[in-house]
């Protein structure tokens, strides 16, 4: 293979992985600018080597946010992406191309803030709200109505509306709400979201609407997709006015500009104003105002030719990196953090920045004493972007992660094939403390009265090193601790006693097995039913569990193969912790051992009633169709799950068939 061909293949794979993390997991690994640079690099290589332009390329398609568990719907009009630029010259170029296309006219542009949220399409039929769908792959998106219909200010009906209307906009989360949720996640020992956009994206894809409702989302609408009759709107500006009349939450400000130069001046005005808006913005969208001209200009495969997004550079500042400090996580993972000379950035004082891992430090050659460029692009935790080499002190030495750990006396090893270092010494007090905090947290064993301060004392006084030690604590031990009296000691002992009966997944999550989060713990419980079965499973069997990939399977297997861990499990067993699932299926029942997926509305039964019947008959429900599904119970308006079941040859039954089966 030639070098450029290899490079194209490598970039495509890299971008596909970033797309997956961004659109499906809402947990991107790199910032938008770095991602946009990779895509630009790929586009240039593809243009220079058209002979290698085989198969699908991310430069020719929009990302894909669709998830198995959701029903998907086809958009009546595709939801496309936008070509984007960070340069005013390219913006003017865009205007010039259109002037050439439409000679002799002064083109009018609508300049709108570009909202940094999650795209959504709302369908109204005869003025009534019917459905909310995510962008998906542009052609087909996920039905997110459940999680969208409670958003404040969304009109259920609109008057004098066209027969069919797709209203387009963005769902976003305000900063205060983002911080509230992240703080709660932190105290529950759960991973944090890097910015409000990711949290909003994660929230609209929650399967449990009650959890989604407990998080406050907002929405702003700025455009339309399909519209029947299609001459209802004639100008982009007309859409803004009409959306406002219909009482949708709309853009706080937009500009109607004569010519591209004036459009550029409006963008500069927007940049000066945008921090006062309620929604986060990352740029401006410039659109031809007149729909007749829009139609003539047309589309490329992934974006309109009549619009462009101008993206603002993320805010950056230079400052001194005083030292690289280390944070220890629940599994003993060691994460480097840059301690900075405080600097003002995007309206806040920044004194720490994430450095991710060893590879990130070596790739950017970051050293203590360097002057570094830090960036904050909507992220709460700023990042170190690069080093200003001109300001590097003369005697500077490269930073060696492993050697640094050794100097500090931290016994850690790098995970095979990964960039994470982990403390291997089970006697390391910081590791013990983190592991116990995680075990006791709300997301795991939920032990009241066992906060961080108590755990810190238990570890430093060597009263507890592992979870099993907690259960051997006596009242006298606890009375030694600061601020502990008889009552609080008693309460803690009672809380520990109560935790012995926790659900199996709470214990599995609490063990702190690398890569195993709350959902995976639940999946493992549903699949295996007991801790012993999980412990005995080989990697191949573990991979059969929905949601467990090869890295997680390896990690679980390795954890249970470790002698110390097995000894700890035996201690927990003898203490009497619950090791088996409480949702035991009845041994016999007409659906015993069967997995059923529900889709669409059933004529008589609600979803809850159907689920109840399935469980009573010994079966279980699952949210996604796979080869392991025994039946798809389909009601009306069944979409993608129906198609998938047909494709996989999964038997499809209706309500009457189902009732006959459970009889
Ligand atoms: N960091 C990562 O790993 C990663 C991965 C994938 C994508 N991304 C980011 O996402 C971008 C690509 O995503 P994209 O295709 O959604 O494009 P985009 O976000 O750059 O622009 C298109 C989108 O902007 C939205 N939008 C906001 N305000 C609008 C307005 N007033 N008018 C019209 N549209 C408006 C629409 O949802 C539209 O689909 C990339 O440029 C990159 O910055 C980042």
Automatic annotation (TrEMBL):
One of its GO terms (molecular function) is DNA binding. It comes from the Bacteria. NAD(+) binds at residues 32-36, 81-82, 112, 135, 170, 287, 311. SMART domains: BRCT, HhH1, LIGANc. Keywords: DNA damage, DNA repair, DNA replication, Ligase, Magnesium, Manganese, Metal-binding, NAD, Zinc. Its cofactor is Mg(2+); Mn(2+). It is an enzyme of class 6 (ligase). The keyword Glycoprotein does not apply. One of its GO terms (cellular component) is cytosol. PROSITE patterns: BRCT, DNA_LIGASE_N1, DNA_LIGASE_N2. The active site is at residue 114. The keyword Ubl conjugation does not apply. It holds the Pfam family OB_DNA_ligase. InterPro entries: BRCT_dom, BRCT_dom_sf, DisA/LigA_HHH, DNA_ligase, DNA_ligase_AS, DNA_ligase_CS, DNAligase_adenylation, DNAligase_N. Gene3D superfamilies: 5' to 3' exonuclease, C-terminal subdomain, BRCT domain, DNA ligase/mRNA capping enzyme, Helix hairpin bin, Nucleic acid-binding proteins. GO terms for biological process: DNA repair; DNA replication. It catalyses: NAD(+) + (deoxyribonucleotide)n-3'-hydroxyl + 5'-phospho-(deoxyribonucleotide)m = (deoxyribonucleotide)n+m + AMP + beta-nicotinamide D-nucleotide. Its EC number is 6.5.1.2. HAMAP family: DNA_ligase_A. DNA ligase that catalyzes the formation of phosphodiester linkages between 5'-phosphoryl and 3'-hydroxyl groups in double-stranded DNA using NAD as a coenzyme and as the energy source for the reaction. It is essential for DNA replication and repair of damaged DNA. Belongs to the NAD-dependent DNA ligase family. LigA subfamily. This is DNA ligase. The lineage of its organism: Bacteria, Pseudomonadati, Verrucomicrobiota, Opitutia, Puniceicoccales. The gene is ligA.
């Amino acid at each position: 293979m030639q070098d450029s061909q290899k490079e194209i293949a490598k970039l495509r794979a890299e971008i596909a992985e970033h797309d997956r993390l961004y659109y499906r997991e809402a947990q991107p690994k790199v910032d938008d600018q770095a991602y946009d640079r990779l895509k630009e690099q790929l586009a240039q290589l593809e243009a220079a080597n058209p002979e290698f332009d085989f198969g699908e390329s991310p430069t020719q398609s929009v990302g894909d946010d669709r998830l198995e568990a959701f029903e998907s719907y086809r958009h009546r009009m595709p939801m496309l992406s936008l070509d984007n630029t960070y340069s005013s010259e390219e913006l003017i170029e865009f205007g010039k191309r259109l002037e050439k296309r439409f000679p002799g006219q002064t083109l009018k542009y609508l300049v709108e803030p570009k909202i940094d949220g999650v795209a959504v399409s709302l369908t109204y039929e005869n003025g009534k709200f019917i459905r909310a769908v995510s962008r998906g792959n542009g052609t087909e998106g996920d039905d997110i109505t459940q999680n969208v219909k409670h958003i404040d200010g969304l009109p259920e009906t609109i008057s004098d509306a066209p027969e069919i209307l797709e209203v387009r906009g963005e769902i976003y989360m305000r900063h205060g709400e983002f911080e509230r949720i992240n703080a709660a996640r932190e105290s529950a020992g759960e991973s944090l979201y890097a910015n409000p956009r990711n949290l909003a994206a994660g929230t609209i894809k929650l399967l449990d609407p009650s959890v989604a409702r407990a998080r406050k989302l907002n929405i702003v609408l700025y455009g339309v997709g399909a519209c029947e009759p299609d001459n209802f709107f004639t100008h982009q500006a007309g859409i803004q006015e009409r959306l406002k009349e219909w009482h949708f939450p709309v853009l706080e400000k937009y500009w109607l500009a004569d010519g591209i130069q004036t459009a550029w001046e409006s963008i500069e005005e927007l940049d000066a104003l945008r921090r006062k808006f309620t929604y986060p913005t990352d740029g401006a969208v410039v659109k031809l105002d007149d729909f007749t001209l829009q139609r003539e200009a047309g589309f490329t495969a992934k974006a309109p030719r009549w619009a462009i997004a101008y993206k603002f550079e993320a805010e950056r500042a230079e400052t001194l990196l005083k030292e690289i400090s280390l944070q220890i996580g629940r599994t003993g993972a060691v994460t480097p953090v840059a301690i900075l000379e405080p600097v003002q950035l995007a309206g806040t004082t920044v004194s720490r920045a994430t450095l991710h891992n060893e590879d990130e430090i070596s790739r950017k050659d970051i050293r203590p004493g360097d002057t570094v460029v830090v960036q904050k692009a909507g992220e709460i935790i700023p990042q170190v972007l690069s080093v200003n080499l001109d300001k590097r002190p003369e005697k500077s030495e490269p930073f060696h992660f492993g050697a640094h750990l050794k100097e500090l006396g931290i016994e850690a090893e790098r995970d095979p094939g990964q960039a994470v270092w982990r403390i291997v010494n089970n006697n390391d007090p910081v590791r013990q403390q983190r592991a116990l905090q995680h075990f006791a947290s709300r997301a795991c064993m939920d032990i009241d009265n066992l906060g961080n301060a108590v755990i810190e004392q238990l570890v430093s006084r060597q009263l507890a090193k592992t979870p099993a030690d907690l259960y051997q604590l006596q009242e006298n031990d606890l009375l030694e601790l600061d601020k502990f009296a008889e009552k609080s000691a008693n309460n803690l002992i009672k809380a520990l006693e109560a935790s012995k009966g926790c659900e199996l997944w709470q214990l599995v999550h609490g063990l702190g097995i690398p890569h195993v989060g709350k959902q995976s713990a639940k999946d493992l419980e549903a699949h295996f039913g007991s801790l012993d079965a999980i412990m005995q499973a080989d990697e191949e069997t573990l991979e059969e569990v929905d949601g467990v990939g090869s890295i997680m399977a390896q990690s679980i297997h390795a954890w249970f193969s470790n002698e110390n861990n097995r000894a700890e499990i035996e201690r927990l067993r003898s203490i009497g912790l619950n090791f088996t699932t409480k949702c035991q299926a009845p041994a016999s029942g007409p659906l015993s051992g069967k997995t059923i997926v529900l889709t669409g509305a059933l004529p008589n039964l609600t979803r809850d009633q159907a689920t109840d019947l399935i469980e009573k008959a010994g079966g279980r429900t699952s949210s996604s169709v796979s080869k392991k599904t025994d039946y798809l119970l389909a009601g009306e308006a069944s979409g993608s799950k129906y198609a998938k079941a047909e494709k996989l040859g999964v038997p499809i039954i209706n309500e009457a068939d189902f009732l006959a089966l459970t009889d």
